[in-house]
Prior knowledge:
Blueprint: H1 2-72, H2 74-80, H3 88-105, E1 109-116, E2 121-123, E3 128-130, H4 137-145, E4 156-161, E5 168-180, E6 188-194, H5 196-206, E7 212-217, E8 223-227, E9 244-247, E10 254-259, H6 261-320, H7 327-366, H8 374-382, E11 386-393, H9 396-402, H10 405-425, E12 429-436, E13 439-445, H11 452-467, E14 472-476, H12 486-498, H13 500-503, E15 508-510, H14 511-514, H15 526-537, H16 542-556, H17 561-579, H18 584-601, H19 607-631, H20 633-647, H21 656-663, H22 667-678, H23 682-700, H24 705-711, H25 717-728, H26 732-741
Parallel strand pairs: 14-15
Antiparallel strand pairs: 1-2, 1-6, 2-3, 4-5, 5-6, 7-8, 7-10, 9-10, 11-13, 11-14, 12-13
Amino acid sequence: MRKQWYYRLLFSYLPVFFIASSVVVIISIVSVRLTIGNEAKRVNEVATKQMLSSVDDALRSIDQLILKEILNNVAFDKFFDPAKETNKYLDSLEMSDRIRNIIHATPLIDSLYLYRYRDNIVLTRDERISLEQFPDKEFLMQTLRNPPKSKWSDLREVSEINVYSNEKIIRKVVTLTSKVPTISGGQGLIVVNVRPYAIQSMIEQMANAQYSLLDFVDMNNASIASIRETADAAGKIEKNRHSFVVSSEYTGWSMHSSINNDKVYGFSSAIFYICFASWVFAIAFGAYWIYVVTRRNYKPIEALTGRLEQFKAQKRLKLLGNEKHGEFDVIEAAIDQLIDQFDYQQLHREENKKYRQRKLLLELLEGNADRNDEWIAGMAEERYPSCIALVEIDHYAKFAATYNKRDQYLLKYAVECVFREVSQKHDMQIWAEWLQGNQMAVLFRCKKLDSKAEVISQEISDWVRENLDFTITIGVGMPVQEIEDIADSYESALKSVKMKFKLGSNRVIVSESIHHINEEELVVQPQTLRAIAQTFRQGDPRWSGILDEFVHQTTESNASKDNVLNMLNLVLFSVDREMGETSSDLKTIWKNGLGRLNEMMEPVETERELYQSFYKEMNEIFEAMNKRKDGNSQTALIYKVRSYLDERYEDPDMSLTELGDRFQINPSFLSRIFKEEIGVNITDYLIATRVEKAKQLLRDTQDTVQSISAKVGYVHAISFIRAFKKTTGLTPGEFRKISAEG
């Protein structure tokens, strides 16, 4: 059994070693070959571009030299401009000297001559000749007839008569043609011929014929210069994956370049043989090394297996039971048991640490922290400024309904992690714990606190709004210096969060910005409650306007959410009491709506949301009640009577008897059902209607009291004054005076 593991190890390593080393060597050879080829191509491309750039620079320097001579040299002006000519023979002689100087100073230039339009004279370095006698006449005529697009011509043949030997010389050149003047060209031409061998010499100095092949051709594909390993190696360069073509934007000529594969891959073949020999040596050495190392390293395993056999006999039942298992099964079981114990202890330790941290933070927020605690003592010694931020999830009821427990935990953890990351970015120490389902307390501590807590809170609020499907409101408490004052910072943060009801959710509220706001106790007048309840019961749309005045009063005040809810509950209580005296159908509609109102108000978080929902529910109840009234004949009759009273209130003869005759109903029965439905008897309703109309006339007109009393249905002004004062507590004159002053 002992040798079994030895051979198993040995024959496990050797095949892997052979295969791995072979793959590595093959990949290395292929990689080296590809790398050499690609690198040679890259170097060749760079060199080709550089050579083309150098040729362009040399040709461009000739172009610029000619331009400079045209602009600055007086001899050129004398030759071309008749106004500046002094002596045509002396001027031509001076110009010929200048041409020779230019040719001698510029090795690339083979010849240079000037052509003058006005008398068709051509001036070379050696002679002054007419165009008809000039050997290069055809080129000049072609240039005049069809001006070239490029300043430089393609490769062409030019003939020239040697003035000394009178021999005709034909050679190939490329030609630069420049107009005089440079813009209009109305005086003549300057022609510069460059011999291809000069360009060939320049390229040969830069190129390496052993490793690269190159053809420099014009736009007609005629060869200007060529680089080969041997002079007789003619022919165009064949296209392959290492060939490269680059064109000049200046001349339009192209360089075709390629790598000499025989040279490049001949070198890589030598590398192949070196790598193969190295591989054979490495295989032999590696196999021997594995044999030696395996034999040496197996000795501890051999000793361990011996000890395991003794251990199995003693501990086998405790670890694996009565079943038969190998040595490594026993080791695995022991290690698994050890890991399980460690994980359990680690988890228990983390839970205790988290519980202790939460308990300490709660004690700090309550002002009951023990200074003898190690953490608290460390915080007290640092004496860093601190402040509390209270994070509250907006619309938590919707949040809890949308996400399951696991998702809620993950989202809360994400918010906590963002707090830590952003605070770390601002060099801020924080201590964050979720106090309850929708609130997390964050303790900020820093050497220079300043407004960092507000800045961090705003960044996190923006991040949550942009990246998550819910929002948060953060209340930032006042900064404190001492550990004992952290509770005060918590109280101010709690007050800031409560201001969400007034200021709105999804924001950061800093205690310093609301410290001047003191909570007010809101009081609603009984007559306001009565007016809302009665008009709502009567189906009078004016209930909404009265409620608007009440809502305006609450929004202008600094009343808390609890105070506002209490006031709205008083409104609902008053309406409920009034609705208790209506028919059973209307009671049912009201009770169902009242249940929805109570469910709606509790989870609402802001004042705006509260009033929007409250108005919506009340309007739905009001419309449902009106529809029910229209469908009930008796109820519909009562509202017809009320409408009749609203229209004919100015009739002084209006009475219960007249109404009974009008609507064919017993007056006593009409009075009783009117009070049950509307809440007041017919007489009181008529008086209230007349008084309301009289108020309007007193405010808006200058009519006398007698005139107003007649308009609202009173024959005698005394009766009107008595009814007005009984209803309002003021005489008509006093009411008009107060209205005018107000």
